[in-house]
User: Fold these one by one.
Assistant:
Number 1:
Amino acid sequence: MTDASQVTLFNSMTRKLEPFEPLREDGVRIYTCGPTVYNYAHLGNLRAYVFGDTLRRVLQWKGFDVVHVINITDVGHLTSDADEGEDKVEVAARRANRSAYEITNYYTDAYFADLKLLGIRPAAMYPRATEHIQEMIAFVQDLADKGLTYEIEDGLYFDTSKVADYGALGALNLEAQQHGSRVAAHQDKRQPWDFCLWRRSPPDQRRLMEWESPWGRGFPGWHLECSVMSHKYLDFPFDIHTGGVDHRQVHHCNEIAQNQGYQNDDGSGVNYWLHCEFLVMREEKMSKSKGNFWRLQTLLDKGVHPLVYRFFLLQATYRTQLEFSKEGLVAARTGFDRIVRRLRGLLERTGDEGRQLADLSAEAESTTGGSFGYLRELYEQELDGGAAEALERFDQAVSEDLGTPRGIAVLTSVVADPEISDLDKLRLVGTFDLVLGLRLLTIEPEELNIRPDDAELTNEQIEALIAERKEARQSKDWSRADELRDELAAAKVLVKDDRDAGETVWMWKPDLD
């Protein structure tokens, strides 16, 4: 069931919006660059996975069956993109006095826990680099047999002069970078941007992770795994490759070079390359190496629910840098809470019919494969008039390069629209949430109200102060009402007067300082 607006996506290779057309009739194949599991994912990393999940949801909502593969990098990623430094996993293992496999298993589990909290649906598979070493060796042997490689002291390198338009995806000016800062000038490389396919272990050292190969004992280059695993599970060419914008200049350019060599043609192996922009903290991107990163648990500790963070992310287009700020998160928390409370009111007023729609939403969130065609039909079969027009606006928004900010604007207008019936509002929210993934019909306002560790007041004390403030307002004692609001604010309690609902609600203020 593909319908209505044509999906368009911004292809990083052509640098323009293009209509999406799948390569096969049996579904869409997506590969996402996954985590390097030597540390927790920070909030900037997680933005890229929310983006990949949103892409998948939009395509499923449009009626496509989707196979999504996300790799786990548990070996080979050096501390520098310039083929220098140490393996990040080995560094972390030595620092923690643990085995490399203990480190990677621990942080892989932490990554999966973060995905679940953010409402990110499981991919079809999460292949690990260490489980595909022999396939990588065979892939490299094929490149070597074709004369695309050369050996130097520390390993086997790919000769980028042997493929067409190296660096086209990243719009690299190779001549200007001959002595530039993008890659180090390794004295034995033929070109500074040639990259390592197999790194040989130093003869006097034993690594925690290393394997025998035709080029000596060692380990695979970071770029190799994505070519090998995407080809194995999705075949070349496949539909869409996603990742963070930091992958566009080096990692994905090197993937493409490998793909070209393996395929014996100039194709990148992928029809559409999509990249998610950085999450920035004022003047710089969030980075583990700079130590300026927050993880999802940091937000939870500060009183911010993970789905509030997802809502925050969806209010910006994935191709724009997003500033991570206290003000933005508090605004997202307030807006999300307002929507959830209004939906709870709709569910109460609609009784059994509303509960059936909420149950359907819960069922939808546990569904991982296939398209959302059947679920959409259940939500949308009775929509007409203004509700049908709202559905069309949402469809147009998300079909145009995953326009979730416009989609959320449609959602907000629907919830507040007096011309749309309560049941139709719930039906619309149910189908919208297949894309947004915010548990809009199942989450309770109380779940969002996370109590800070240093909270001074009990819930009963807060309710008593709010009741006293209500009495002061009714008697027009505005001075006392303001005093009570200030007292609550000093105790990290936000008070909101919802005129539409005719009630005063409160929530703990996230401790984001």
Number 2:
Amino acid sequence: MAETQHPVGLAVRLPFKSPEEFLQGYGQNLSKGGIYLRAKNLRAPGTPVTLEIKLADGSRIISAIAKVSFVTGAHGVGVPGMGFKFLVLDAPTRRFLETAAAVMPHARSDEPPLPKNVGEPDFRPEAVEPPLPVEPPPATGAPPPSQANPSLPSEQSGRLVVTSEASTLEAPAFEAPAEEPPRTGPIIGIDLGTTNSCAAVVRDGKPVILRDKDGRGLIPSVVALTPRGKLSVGAPARAQMLSNPRWTASGFKRLLGRAFDAPEVQPIIRRFGWEVVPTESGDCGMRLGDRVYRLEEISALVLREVKGLAERHLGVPVHRAVITVPAWYTEKQRLAVREAGRLASLHVERIVNEPTAAALAWGYGRKLTQRILVYDLGGGTFDASVLELNDTVYEVMSTGGDPFLGGMDFDTTIVAWLLADFEQKHDTIFSDRVAIQRVTDAAERAKIALSTTHEAPIKVPFVTMVNNTPVDLDVVLKRQTLVELTHALVDKTMEVCQEVLKVRGVRADEITEILLVGGQSQAPLVQERITVLFGRKPLQGVNPNEAVAMGAALLAHALEKQEGLLLVDVLPQSIGVGLPGGKFEVVVPRNTALPVTRKHRLITSQDAQEAIEVPILQGSKDQAKDNTYLGTVRLSGLPPAPAGGVAVELSFELSNECLLTLTAKNAATGQDVAATFATQDAPEVVKARMAALERELPPPGEEATQPRGFGGWLSKLLGG
């Protein structure tokens, strides 16, 4: 078919509210060279068209002269549609396509894309039979659109019926291992980080970071659902963050092992680009497509990626690992990491605190006798630990932290400032997930650059539309402005450092060295404040992103070789029981050296009482409801006796990695009492069980010191 002089006018309106939504829902069909559209009426390849694509509100997003490059489904095989190659673009369209190419690698092609499952492309002019008549030019007689200001026909002059591809994808189920991982083969050290994860092993007595063929040792802790319904992990998943943040999980380490309705969780949920939802057990989960994943499963996917890298590097199967966690992690969160390891087919030989691992990486083999402070400011959490080093003994004296303070919060602060500046300049705001993620990515890059420079440009092209005109975000961020924005966050870390010193009666000038760990610790403001507080500069030459994994590898090596390495950690947050009236009684205080066993005495409060139910909590607040609920221990099979006639001694046994075991004995006879520790009840199940029991308070004027009854007051503790 010979090309006609006048293009056919085709206009399409797609069900997207913003350019960002368009990229998220239809971006796989777009490149800077063209676009693929499903259509009922096909035009022959080679047919020129004036193409106009609008959003749901009628605003134009693409305006171009194009030609039909190929068709699909012309003969009933595959999906009917056409690939259009752009020939002439107006300026806003060109800028939009440049943005698409910047955030989606496939969009850099000069040819229209061919989506998956639409069939084979046909480039022959005779592909559409019989040839469809060419529509006459618009009645106005206007010439073909120019590059600067194309004059496109109305929507009625030519219309494509387009099938939206923005519906929810069917996500794959998580495949758990059929068997427990064997305890054979090498033990690797893994740093399961908020931003990046990595693995290390010991060779010739020295820890070595395992790297891929391109020399990269850091694996982004990111999991994504691709537009084709596949799960992607690591660098490929991170590449999708800008185009589809809703289906891209990052920063989930912050919420791992936490209850969805916990008061500390709800305020930060909106900070995540992905959808945080409750799982059946009431913990935080993630919705990807049509499926909800537990965060243990999401973490396991990252661990599998790390495990695969280790196996390719070592050439043997890997089933054993030492995995690091923030020192401020609760017992429940540590169990969640162990579960993630199991789901990744890894036997977790030991959970170790990140500051302790970093200290081990720095001091191993140096025969030091020093008192150091590890300042660990990573992507999502902050820990500060004081340790005493004595050759092969690494003893933690005290630890403190903030589980919701990290590099992500620095980024959020910068983004808030950028949005306020944008609103002031353009009298408009935007909240689209894709746009916010693009701004966040630019803010993070500028923040990193300001560690070595004094100003950094932040430019996000075509961030939103204002009066149907694309607008850029274009700002220069200066280091002094960054200091003003983030000094309060750094002040919080200094307060934690002072508190961990004070709790053990240690002066700042008694600290020999300060070890910085975590990417955010490299900020100049952090190092300045450390120098002021301790009167000396922090250590240099320690890789803040690799030290934790290297320490984990050294511990793994020591476990494997049964070397005489001793790590003495402490309990980061107190563990205790809930009392009638909603009080929290500490049984094992914070900073108690591990392992440890402490006992707690319980008595019956009713005649012939057969069981006692007690909530176990972890935290530092006076009220039970303000602490982390670990579970409920039920002591059953008690002998019949009058109220107060049976006393039970409940033992709290904490391992060297802060994992809790509860056992009980009859205080009078020494016989074991059946103890069941329930941690996985769904919130509605717990509340329903507690609602059936009457809330019991201590007698008027009497301080609550023992659980009375067997659980009717737990409903109050859980907010029932």
Number 3:
Amino acid sequence: MTSSTQGAVKQRTSDIYLEREGQRLIGRVINAVEHEPWSVTLLQLAWTAGPATFLAAQGGYYLGFGEFLPTDRIIFFVGYTAFAGVIGILTKLLYDQHVRGKRKRREEALTTVIDRLPELIFAVRDLTLASLPPEQRKREAAWRLLKETELGPVGLATAVEDLTGSIHLADTARRMEIYRRQGMFHRARDLFDEEADLIGWAVDALQAGAPAMAGTLRERLEGRGVTVRTGVPRDENFVERIFAAIGDENPALMTLYDVEEVLVLAFELISGREIPVLTFNYRGSWQLARATDALERARVQFQIAKATGYSRLKALIALLTESDVELAETVAGQDSDTLLAKVQASFDQLREAIYDLRVEVANGRISVLDELEDKTRTLAAGIEIYEALRAAYREMGRRHAELIRARGRWDALSSGKRASATELSTGGRRSGLSIAERAIRLDDDEKLRAAEALMQPLRSLDLRRNRRRPAIASHTGMRPLTVESAKDLAVDVALVLERFAEISRPQNQRAINASNAPLLANIEPGMSAATKAAVGSAVVQAIHTDVARPAERLAAALVHHYRIELTDKAIGFLHDVYGADLETLQVIAAYAEPAPVVPVQQLRNRPPSIPPLDDNWTRQVNRGRRLLASHDREL
């Protein structure tokens, strides 16, 4: 048997195993919420409608009349038990018909959702790339391969070449990966050192315009890539952006990346993922307990306000990119000031383009009206999000002031307490601050109910690659996958997850942001639903449940906002129980200081303000709208 034949046999064997395992997993979830089998029911009916009823009747009659049942009473009870048994069996039959129908519907829903979610993830990913200019699309696709996929030597070389444009660096990456896969890490390091200048040049070239891409490239060349165990970092605050779009009824506030992220979250929760959530509780003085709750609430609201501001900025960037407004360079990893400057420059370009198009229309070139309409609509939508961005930063300022006041009250109350009342409890004490654990998860019944709620929205989108999609949609009632329909789907999925997992709660959002998503690279388009179920279950079970980062963030909050001293005992507790890094905890502990005479001096720096709208932007939008209205066109 040739090696290729052996490989094909192994692949078929693997596929059959995954198919069977997936069917078993789907059946287990369905059966977990079913009732007892027929054999048990019949035994129960036979006992309760027969001997149990007869003995109870004999005993009750004897106690009441001092004698056993006469013959006519016995005949009555025999008839009664017979009829009761028949009625019970008929009731069971009717109930079972209902249960079988319900089981079939639930199995269909669960199978459909498991099958469709990965396909939609792939389709939305492709839709995201379709909205980018060709050169940026090439780099973005390569970057996503590097940060989200376990690549072999050829795949790594392809991604490096597309990202950097260097064939030589791509060949070096391929050779390094070959040696690493054979365990020869020192040889791979030799190649890395030999090409250190070229690698440094490639990383520096990306650093100025795309620092996130530069970091990913260096990590992959050093041999540090994603694995099934580590998972894939999420695009933070995607939940906030989706619910902001829902609350403001403005889909532009979310991005296609957010759509992909919420679909991944739905798939992993239905596949059995549990995301840990760490919070802390205070037991002790009721006044200090209320102040602790108020301070934690103010701290969470300030963090959410900060995330909201940055989310609005990312949504604005996404709108401009999706509308074919070419930003100077990619925005991956850029800070807020840089992103804001790019937005303002793009607005200026749109303003000038609208002016030039208006001049052309005035000179009789009616053919540019479509382009004028697109540019005017884009700038108008951008201005709307820009105002939302300014409002978000003003809200951040208000939340900052509330945090200062809450911190002052907590400092005033805690300063007179014993040290033990405000230190981190490591177990055994009934007072003070203690860490509480729970998990974001779906039980088997919630998975089935969530699948039933998701089935129709997932089925409503047509994913077939056919240029005659509108004709297909008119006959099938399905919508083509567009930016608008993808965002509508994200809203439906987020609302279902909110119903069962409360993903919008601030502490749950923080936990989701701190966790890595599962690596879905082993799921391929066209796989059966059972195979996808098996792979999905395997990857969510394989991913390392990392509570170290949440524990470190919680420790930082306790030290910086509550002035809790991280003792050696507390550091050891966080390291042993949650796996928090010792060096990180020691750095955090170094910031613990006595309460200052003037409290909350560390919170003096106010959030930045966003410049007001340029009147020229609004003026061009209004003039563009009037010109379009004069030609009987509506925005």
